[in-house]
Amino acid sequence: MEKQFLIIQDQSLVIAALVYGIIFLVLLTTGLLLFFHYSRRKIIQKELEKAALKLEHQKTILQATIATQEEERKRIAQDLHDAISARLNVVSLTTNLLLDDDSINEEQKSSLEHILGVTTTTLESSRKIAHDLLPPILDKFGLKVALEELFEDFTKSKQVQIKYDIDELDFLSKTNDLHIFRIAQELINNAVRHGDASRMNIQLKKDGENRFIFTCKDNGNGFDVKKVRKQSGIGLQNIKSRTAILECDLHVESEIDKGSLFTIQSKNNE
Amino acid sequence: MTEFIDDIVKYLGILLLIINFILFTKSHKYYKNFMAFNILYIYIIISLTLLTITNIFNEFKIRNLYLSHFYFIFQFIILSIFYITLLRHKSQQKLIQILFVSVIFILGIQYALDYHKFFKFSLLEIFLTSFPLTIYSTIHLYNSLTTRGEYLYFNAAILIYITATTLIFILGNYITGEEIDKTIARNIWFIHKVLYLVFLILTFLEWKNSFSSYKTKA
Question: Nearest CA to CA, how far is B124 from chain A (Å)?
Fold first, then answer.
């Protein structure tokens, strides 16, 4: 009887050890799992932060690139105007003077006329190039007039019919004017070149205090928004960066064969 | 009263295993191209089969201890393959292959030398078939630190269940022995049933998280 009791007591000791052993192992493995879970969360969060930082960095670089590009364009336009156009003007004036001279013979006269012709067309092209690089009208008369001229030019060249409605936005800085102008230029170019659009409708409207909304609708081929979002070309990338500089949201709506609609709207800062 | 709770846990376990089987069968047509899913599915089928056979043997009072060997070896083989498909590093796959061959080799020799071991719990077998699995499970956790992580619930289930139950099975011969007090033994098997229930719940969560909505993953 005594022995029996001792055996049972012995058994319960082993069993108790076993139970505590099991509890210990369960807690240990659970702790291990929790440790991995929280480490994982921390690591993923760090990765996300890193990715966001990288993206921000890329954005800054892109914006700097655009700013430099504009500066360079401005410089080249200025140089074209000062160094080439001014001198070609002197050539053309001198040639005119020589042509007025009666002592030259017919052969010389025709050569001079040829020089005058070439000079005039070169002057015209250099003026056009400078104009494309930096529309002087934007500087002198502001965004509204510059845009109107841009649209009229396209309409006149019969490439595309543009209907427009533009508000005067006096709160925008000169550089921001230029960004909007470039966006409009890029969008029309895209619509004509890639979309085969024949009609466009462009609006630039005031949208409350220091805010605006710009919409551009075309009847071209349209595109797959998801596909373009993944691998946008330089043109669209440029538009995105400029939109970011303007602190605006870009919204693109498009479907194959149903044209496209671009909306650029000032961000809600409140 | 304790017997009543014991029964409840037991039948809950069986019910949950059947539910898991049905749910994984339902998802099978969408995921049949995923190797790991198929292996997990086979694991569930075999678990269900073994459970059914054990219960039938119990009904007819046939001693069923040798079924445990099938259970351990099947579990080891299937989960080794499962982890080979999950762990993608060459060196980790190599580790599994080496351990796999060595374990099967050692166990083969053991049973060739002494087949009487087949009618008791084999401590060496339990250790050799369980310990590598906990290692694989930890390696998989480590791999998942920086990735999206697949089968994390099932992995957690394996880690907790196998680690804790290895201890029970190692003392299995003692618990199933003749001289032990039956009520104490029953309490230990009750703990085992609870752990198995946890295992099945985590498997169910795995299904719910990864396979219940086909569209979100596709």
Answer: 18
Cα–Cα distance, A158 to A163 (Å, whole number) = 13
Which H or E run includes A42?
helix A2-79
Q: How far is CA B50 from CA B44, B64, B162, B202, in A?
A: 10, 11, 17, 20
| Nearest CB neighbour to B159, from listed A33, A43, A47 | A33
Could you give the number of structural domains in chain B?
A: 1
Interchain CB distance below 8 Å, B179 and A7: yes
Rounded to a whole number of angstroms, the distance from the CA of B22 to the nearest CA of chain A is 28
User: Does B187 sit within 8 Å of A11, measured CB to CB?
Assistant: no
Mean pLDDT of the A237-263 span: 86
Sheet-wide strand order for A161-166? A161-166, A199-206, A212-218, A260-266, A248-254
Cβ-Cβ pairs closer than 8 A, A with B, add up to: 58
Contacts of A25 in chain B (CB under 8 A): 163-164, 167
DSSP strand pairing (A161-166 vs A199-206):
parallel
The mean pLDDT value for B1-28 works out to 88
Residue B98 φ then ψ, to 5°: -65, -50
Domain count, chain A: 2
B146: closest CA of chain A, how far (Å): 6
Q: Do B181 and A8 touch (CB under 8 A)?
A: yes
Asked, for residue B57, whether it belongs to a domain, the answer is: yes
Spell A145-168 as b/e; 16+ CB within 10 A means b: ebbeebbeebeeeebbebebebee
pLDDT of B166 above 50: yes
ipTM of the complex, rounded to two decimals: 0.81
Q: Identify the domain containing residue B177 by its residue range.
A: 2-209
Would the pLDDT of B218 be above 50? Answer: no
Name the token pair of B96. 């599994």
Chain-chain contact of A11 with B181 (C-beta, under 8 angstroms):
yes
Q: Do A26 and B181 touch (CB under 8 A)?
A: no
Residue of A nearest to B175 (CA): A15
In this structure, are A223 and A256 located in the same domain?
yes
Three-state secondary structure call for residue A201: strand
User: Where do we find the tokens 């339902």?
Assistant: B26
Using beta carbons and an 8 Å cutoff, which residues of A are at the interface with B? Answer: 7-8, 11-12, 14-15, 18-19, 21-22, 25-26, 28-30, 32-33, 36, 39-40, 43-44, 47
Range of the domain at A187: 136-270
The full length of chain B comes to 218
* A177 contacts: CB under 8 Å, gap ≥ 6: A138, A142, A143, A146
Asked, for residue B78, whether it belongs to a domain, the answer is: yes
The whole-number pLDDT of residue A149 equals 87
